[in-house]
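Lab notebook, design round three. We kept the backbone fixed and only want residue identities now. Task for the bench partner: fill in a sequence for the structure below.
Input structure tokens:
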């Protein structure tokens, strides 16, 4: 585990910007890089896309107008401690604030690494009770922090508490562990989860670059998929990491090849200290258009933004329908920029 400037310097020669970051500042997310992830970083490339995600830069200390620590206003949607109910059909449970890796783009900085640890049995019980009383919730996200930093034993109790009250609840396991520390995903862990077989689980990974899909990572995800737990990936669009067409095409195709469905490509959230990692939406839309030309439907993620002040997620998709030129006559732009018309069925008299 690399968690001090001294340990970091044993692996990498710091750039001026990395050197100038205040590693003692307790108001920003602390440095935390697991050995596995560090081993993937090329020490000779100061712009390595994996390095950019985990080595802090001085820009993190810059504050921006109108940007805070809770862009999604999650605090307003917190129904019981750690349970966020923002959308009618699904809720998110902050299982723990602990992560195996600290991503410099983390959007839940208000909570991540806040020294609270895994949810207490009381917090779990109250959240489970809420979910029991809100039958409109069909899916529960186990998020955080990173749920797979919790021991198998505690995780088992957590799953049981929710599934006892709601055997029909689909549970999403949201985790960066396959990229950060794939050895954590043991056969015993997956076997334990599979025993709760009254409703499906989904594994929601976060891979931001194809180089994170190592043999070990792929093996970790395969344990879930072979066990009947489908895998979906959420990528964060990040400057200097994956903001070019080739990188995203490689990532998405590698995901599909390893039985992981690219689900979302997220625009960076408006979180303090992350401006230097955000990509302008105009560029994001260009990338989205290029991906739609290059990728299969299966490999294509939905580019989306989680709007500030709790506005929720909306897709960012280029317009292909240009106009209804006359009644029932629709004009489209094709992915290649040509024009086509589609006619509604003739009205019956
Ligand atoms: C993203 C998110 C969800 C899940 O949204 P999907 O579009 O279904 O993936 C649920 N709750 C919260 C609070 C979220 O931020
Ligand atoms: S693993 Fe997730 S919650 Fe943890 S630091 Fe990274 S983005 Fe944030």
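Proposed sequence:
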């Amino acid at each position: 585990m690399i968690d001090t400037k001294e340990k970091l310097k044993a692996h990498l020669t710091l750039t001026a910007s990395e050197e100038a970051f205040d590693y003692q500042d307790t108001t920003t997310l602390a440095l935390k890089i697991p050995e596995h992830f560090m081993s993937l970083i090329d020490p000779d490339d100061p712009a390595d896309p994996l390095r950019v995600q985990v080595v802090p830069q001085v820009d993190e200390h810059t504050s921006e107008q109108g940007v805070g620590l809770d862009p999604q206003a999650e605090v307003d949607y917190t129904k019981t401690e750690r349970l966020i109910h923002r959308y009618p059909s699904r809720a998110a449970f902050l299982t723990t604030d602990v992560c195996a890796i600290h991503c410099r783009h983390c959007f839940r900085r208000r909570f991540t690494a806040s020294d609270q640890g895994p949810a207490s049995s009381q917090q779990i019980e109250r959240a489970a009770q809420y979910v029991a009383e809100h039958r409109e919730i069909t899916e529960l996200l186990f998020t955080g922090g990173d749920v797979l930093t919790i021991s198998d034993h505690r995780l088992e109790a957590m799953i049981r508490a929710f599934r006892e009250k709601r055997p029909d609840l689909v549970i999403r396991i949201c985790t960066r562990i396959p990229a950060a520390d794939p050895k954590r995903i043991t056969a015993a862990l997956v076997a334990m989860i599979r025993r709760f077989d009254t409703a499906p689980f989904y594994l929601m990974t976060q891979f931001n670059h194809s180089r994170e899909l190592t043999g070990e990572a792929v093996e970790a995800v395969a344990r879930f998929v072979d066990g009947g737990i489908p895998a979906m990936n959420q990528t964060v669009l990040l400057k200097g990491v994956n903001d070019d067409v080739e990188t995203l095409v490689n990532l998405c195709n590698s995901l599909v090849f390893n039985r992981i469905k690219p689900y979302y490509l997220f625009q960076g959230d408006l979180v303090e200290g992350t401006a230097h990692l955000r990509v302008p939406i105009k560029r994001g839309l260009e990338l989205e258009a290029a991906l739609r030309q290059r990728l299969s439907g299966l490999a294509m993620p939905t580019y989306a933004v989680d709007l500030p002040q709790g506005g929720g997620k909306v897709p960012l998709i280029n317009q292909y329908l240009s106009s209804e030129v006359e009644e029932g006559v629709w004009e489209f732009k094709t992915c290649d920029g040509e024009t086509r018309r589609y006619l509604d069925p003739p009205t019956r008299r």
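Keep this in mind before ordering anything: The CA atoms of residues 61 and 273 lie 6 Å apart.
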